[in-house]
Amino acid sequence: MKATSPSILDELQDHAVRDLAWVIGSPGLLDSSYPAYQGHVVEDSWCQAQLHACATWLRDLDVHPLPLHEFIQSRPTRRLGHYFETLINFWLTHLKGTELIAANLQVQDAQRTLGEYDFLFRDSAGDTYHWEAAVKFYLQATPQSEQRSFIGPGTRDRLDIKLDKVFKQQLLLSNSAEGLQALPKGIKPDRTQAYIKGYLFYHCSSSHKDSIAGISGVHLTGWWVRHNLEEIPQSHTESRWAILPRLSWLAPVLITDDTLAITYTSLDEQLEQHFQASSEALLLVELSGDTGAVWRELSRGFVVCSTWPIITPSNAN
User: Fold this and answer.
1) Spatial contact of 145 and 212, defined as CB atoms under 8 Å apart
2) Structural contact between residues 210 and 146, judged by C-beta atoms closer than 8 angstroms
3) Contact at 8 Å (CB) between 223 and 201?
4) CB atoms inside a 10 Å sphere around CB 296
5) Per mean pLDDT, which range of 28-37, 69-78, 155-164, 231-240 is the poorest?
């Protein structure tokens, strides 16, 4: 796993503030120079500059995180994508020189919803942006270095299909009559961009990772294994572990409660119990302790059921 903005993330303690910093500064999944995407991807250099500019704000928020906590609580969700968008909403609302015009603005015709503008905002230069935002976690199901080889842990989502939808439908909303009609009066996007972050996970047997058309060369990575068929990669014998709930999948994990960092033996027992009852994939993190009894993420990966990517209907969640 490639580290993301350690100079700032290592300072922050609050879980939500760490997630916010990750949303702002982590590497994107997409190659902004790829011809089909060029000019329509938010570049990593811009994100890093924004993270640097927001550093003091993030540090202050880490000390007094109530405004962020209340903003999140006002938009309750169990879906990671919605949580990701909530953090972007909070950021753009507070970003100096930026006017958030609309979020999740629906586009409809007489019969149905055709789509929505994830974010419409105006920057300090007066340019209006339409962003389509997504956070995605895909596993390389076959060894081919192609977008279509990557699918979601629940097997209901595929990288190439998602990106086709973003660039061939969602970012083109303002080109349609219905999309134009849905825009606030006097608003027309000057730029349309994809803001897509997340991780790609490679099978534990993969010795190298070839370049993938359209995918950033510095995208975040992890591993995946099938339960009871392959060993979980472990960097150190003294490592601890944590099984992450879905809304904790963003920023690198920081644990200050020693009881939440479990041993490999305990992890193995919990995995056995889980997969006896369910086929749902679990995201794990390997943790390294420091002298202050703080556990920090070393690596992350999915443990999937033994038949993955075939999910047994009787066990699927």
Assistant:
1) yes
2) no
3) yes
4) 17
5) 231-240
Helical (H) or strand (E) element with 166: helix 159-168
DSSP H or E run through 248: none
Quick one: CA dihedral 164, 224, 14, 12, positive or negative?
negative
Q: Closest Cα to residue 200, out of 251, 243, 246, 151? A: 151
Closest C-alpha among 282, 283, 237 to residue 264: 237
Instruction: Please give the pLDDT value at position 317.
Output: 45
* Strands in 12-122 per DSSP E: 99-108, 113-122
pLDDT band, residue 7 (cuts 50/70/90)? confident
- On whether the CB atoms of residues 178 and 111 are closer than 8 A, the answer is no
The two structure tokens encoding residue 132: 């389509």
Residue 9 C-beta-side C-alpha neighbours within 13 Å: 23
| CA end-to-end span of the chain | 28
**Structure tokens of 123?**
């920057």
**Nearest residue to 227 via CA among 288, 261, 262, 278:** 278
Cα(164)–Cα(70) distance, rounded to whole angstroms? 35
| pLDDT, tens only, 241-275 | 999 999 999 999 999 988 899 999 999 999 999 99
Please report the pLDDT score of residue 312 as a whole number. 67
pLDDT over 70 (residue 316): no
Residue 15's closest CA among 261, 307, 253, 293? 253
Question: Is the confidence at residue 77, as pLDDT, over 90?
Answer: yes
Our CA dihedral for 9, 89, 26, 260, rounded to 10 degrees, sits at 50
Q: What are the backbone angles phi and psi of residue 118, rounded to the nearest 5°?
A: -60, -50
- Output the CA–CA distances (angstroms, integers) from residue 114 to 106, 172, 173, in the order listed: 8, 12, 9
Average pLDDT over residues 156-183: 96
pLDDT at 290 exceeding the cut of 90: no
Cβ partners under 8 Å of residue 275, min gap 6: 227, 228, 305, 306
